[in-house]
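Might you be able to check the backbone structure tokens below? Thank you kindly.
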Amino acid sequence: MNFRKQHSIEPSPMQLAPLVDVLFLLVIFFAVTFQYAKEEQVMDVSVPAAEEGKEKESRNVGEIIINIKKDGEILVNGQKYNTDELLAKLQNIVSLYKDQAVILRGDEIVNYQHVIRVLDTCQKAGIWNIAFATRKPEAADQPAATPK
């Protein structure tokens, strides 16, 4: 004979409030991170227009965007760099990632020598995967079509 009472432990219901809080924080984190990654370009740099230029909607992970302002100032992630600091930063990155991609966003009226200086710095660091940012020409920029 078994005279002991059998106690059954009822499972506690799942708490949804902490789960909702965690999910809400994750959504906010990814939304803010996506926005900062998307807007990693300096707004006062106006890239030149090209017939085949296009605004890149998505970026590859790990691309470095180097902005060259009108006065030749070099910006990466909102920080100013001179050529020596940029070279040191790029060499550190290349030591970890051999095929590092770089996008140059030079202002359309920047002195060509500033662009060459940044290109030379990329070459010294061992970066070969370099692209130039352009935009589609606006209707006012495009030449009028000539009738044939």
The helical segments are 16-38, 83-96, 112-125. The chain has three helices and five strands. The first strand starts at residue 64 and ends at 68. Residues 144-148 have pLDDT under 50 and may be disordered.
